[in-house]
Design a protein that fits this description.
Structural class: alpha+beta
Largest sheet: 6 strands, antiparallel
Oligomer: single chain
Number of domains: 6
Shape: elongated
Number of strands: 49
């Protein structure tokens, strides 16, 4: 809307409202207090006070403002109050009055009024305080009944005032959260720090509600005003520093005594809480360093600069006022040479020496040989002697092996020695030396490390000996006895069953106690072929001879086994015969004994029976004699009677019996004559005649035999 339209328009100002109108001809500002009606002329315009100047109103509905109003729980900060305190605007038009520019007054509620042109007002709620809240108030003008100079700040504490409205001359200072500030509440084990002018500090321990003084601010760390006291334990210490001179009494947090600024104190073996004070500042906690067995750290004494090695097992609590832990970093190649997989710079260098190995520990004025198996913790100024050994075959110094470990027993060094025989044949001999290091005392052990490259010393010296020995030998002899020639040259001649003496090195106590020839290579191919053919023939001959010898041995074994079997069998038979003889003798003895026993038994029984029989026989003899007489008489009678009976038999009966017998004999003879004649190749008549001719046949039998023979002879045989 155009400015002209605004001016020509009537403006209604309601009750409790006001507006500013400026006379364009004079520049005066008139205050209109409602309820009223403003009719603007062409030389007037509606303005408003903004940014310390009056600006025309260019928006419809703007330019009319409500009265400044505050309730009983509020107050108004009025800037540029009227010079005459009794000046009060009235309803309608009010000309400008003289103001006290640059002044501020506090108007407590309840209050309601318009603002004179040039005044500003701010309504603020009254400040309600609790037990743990407070206000920061500053004097900006003279305060009635208060002589405090301008700029003085005061703290209004909640425990003292529950509701606060400042008086004129006092202003409540806000912070980022508002006017009411919260005090710091501390519990057990907590403390707060308040910083004042010149960086003076005040430490307050809990439990407490901490209100700062007007000149103090809370020290904040990580956004917190509350700090935890430092817990004290047996396994840790506390490093503190005196920031000003003071005297500690018995029972204080630190030992009694007088302390100077900057003096450092180490507290240990205590329990509880430590609270920093304005005289003591905590530098830090010191934790015990756990050290396992065979583990250590380096500690430097601050007063003397001497570095000491502390070895576990223990929990070491370093006193930072007396000592400091020193780091000892190692280069990666040194870590590798010391046989460690890794190294913590804050720990002591710990070296494990395996069995049969030794190291030389060196310092400015010390040389000590340590033999394994054991773990050695090096002091800060101690290092291990480094050996640089030749490598390759043949051994050379082009590539050296760096190591700190010396194999004292069972050391094996291999090399290839180029030699020339007496008949100018060049060969490469692969050898392996068995080496040990011997010493009778600590000085002798330290001598082991006098030669940094004992491999080069060994191979050069022994190689020259081998070359000299081969130079005096023909190829044929060396090819056949290479091992013996080299062993004798290096280890000495063998005397009977005694061991070879070996070869010692005075430089470092090294002893070569054995040499093994791994191979011999002839560099001349023609000579190699000739020797190979000769060797092949010798091998074939030797194999053939061995086969014959094995065959002979097999036969001898076979015959020996057979003889053994036979001898065993003979021995078994002899033993069996002896056993049978023994059994027989035993049986005879047993039988003889049984016979003797039986004989004696029977003899006794017989004697007893004989005695009884003699008595019985005497009685029986008499009875038998009588019975005999009777029997003889009876037999005589029977014989006589039989004779009479036989005499009574007719002779015809006898003849009849003989005839029956002859017939029976003839019948049986007839049955068996034919087979007998066939078997004997004779006639039946001849057989019958030969069989019966010698029998007592009597006359009748003779006649019967004649008839039988006549019947049995064939007709052709008849005369």
């Amino acid at each position: 809307m155009a400015e002209r339209d605004v001016r020509e328009r009537d403006i209604l100002v309601a009750s409790n409202e006001y507006a500013y109108v400026q006379d364009l001809t004079k520049g005066d500002i008139v205050l209109y207090v409602g309820p009223t009606k403003i009719s603007l002329s062409n030389t007037e315009r509606l303005v408003q006070f903004s940014a310390e100047r009056f600006a025309p109103v260019r928006e419809e509905g703007a330019g009319v403002s409500p009265f400044v109003s505050a309730s009983s729980s509020q107050y108004i900060i009025l800037e540029n109050p009227p010079k005459e305190a009794a000046s009060r605007p009235v309803k309608g038009s009010n000309s400008s009055i003289e103001l006290l520019n640059g002044r501020k007054i506090v108007v407590p509620g309840p209050a309601m009024f318009p603002l004179w042109p040039g005044q500003k007002a701010k309504v603020i709620d009254g400040h309600r305080l609790h037990e743990d809240t407070y206000l920061r108030v500053r004097v900006y003008d003279k305060v009635e009944a208060d002589p405090s100079p301008i700029g003085t700040e005061k703290i209004i504490k909640g425990p003292e005032v529950s509701f606060y409205i400042p008086a004129t001359g006092l202003e409540v200072l806000p912070d980022e959260k508002g006017y009411v500030r919260t005090a710091v509440t501390l519990t057990d084990g907590q403390y707060a720090i308040l910083r004042g002018p010149q960086n003076r500090r005040r430490y307050v321990r809990g439990p407490a509600v901490v209100f700062p003084e007007a000149w103090e601010d809370f020290v904040q760390r990580a956004g917190s005003k509350v700090f935890l006291a430092v817990p004290m334990k047996k396994d840790r210490g506390l490093h503190v520093r005196a920031v000003k001179a003071f005297e500690a009494k018995a029972g204080d947090q630190i030992p009694a005594g007088v302390y100077k600024p900057g003096q450092e104190i180490f507290l240990q073996d205590q329990e509880g809480f430590f609270f920093p004070t304005d005289a003591l500042d905590v530098i830090g906690e010191v934790h015990a360093i756990p050290l396992a067995d065979k583990e250590g750290i380096y500690v430097r004494h601050i007063a003397t600069g001497r570095i000491q090695t502390v070895v576990g097992p223990k929990n070491f609590l370093p006193d930072p006022t007396q000592v400091e832990v020193v780091a000892r970093p190692l280069e990666p190649d040194v870590v590798w040479r010391y046989g460690m997989s890794s190294h913590d710079p804050m720990r002591a260098v710990t070296v494990y020496i395996p069995p049969s190995l030794a190291v030389l520990v060196t310092a400015r004025s010390k040389r000590e040989v340590v033999r394994g198996p054991q773990v050695r913790i090096l002091d800060y100024d101690e290092d291990l002697e480094v050996l640089t050994l030749s490598t390759g075959k043949p051994k050379s110094d082009e590539t050296l092996l760096s190591t700190c470990f010396l194999l004292t027993e069972g050391n094996k060094v291999s090399d290839i020695v180029r030699v020339r025989t007496s008949d100018h044949v060049e060969l490469d001999v692969a050898v392996s030396y068995r080496v040990s290091f011997q010493a009778s005392d600590a000085a002798g052990e330290a001598r082991w490390f006098n030669v940094k490259n004992y491999v080069a010393l060994l191979c050069d010296h022994v190689g020259s000996i081998v070359r000299a020995a081969v130079r005096a030998t023909s190829i044929d002899l060396f090819h056949a006895q290479s091992a013996g020639i080299i062993r004798s040259a290096v280890l000495g001649e063998k005397k009977g069953d005694e061991k070879r003496s070996g070869r010692s090195f005075d430089e470092n106590g090294m002893v070569v106690y054995d040499v093994e020839v791994l191979g011999v290579k002839i560099l001349d191919e023609d000579v190699d072929a000739l020797l190979s053919d000769a060797q092949r023939s010798a091998i074939r001959s030797e194999v053939s001879r061995k086969q014959q010898e094995l065959r002979l041995a097999d036969e001898r074994i076979r015959e020996s086994v057979n003889r053994g079997i036979y001898e065993a069998q003979a021995a078994s038979l002899t033993t069996e015969v002896t056993l049978e003889g023994a059994k027989h003798a035993l049986a005879l003895a047993t039988a003889a004994g049984a016979v003797d026993v039986d004989k004696m038994t029977r003899l006794g029984e017989a004697r007893n029976a004989a005695d009884a029989l003699e008595i019985e026989s005497a009685a029986a003899h008499a009875a038998f004699a009588r019975e005999g007489e009777l029997e003889r008489a009876r037999l005589t009678a029977q014989v006589a009677a039989f004779k009479e009976q036989m005499s009574a038999l007719a002779p015809e009966l006898i003849a009849t019996l003989k005839m029956l017998g002859n017939q029976k004999a003839a019948t049986e003879l007839t049955k068996n004559l034919a087979p007998l004649a066939i078997l004997g190749g004779e006639s039946v008549a001849d057989v019958a005649e030969r069989l019966l001719r010698g029998l007592p046949l009597g006359a009748a039998g003779e006649q019967a035999l004649a008839r039988l023979v006549t019947r049995a002879r064939p007709v052709s045989e008849e005369p």
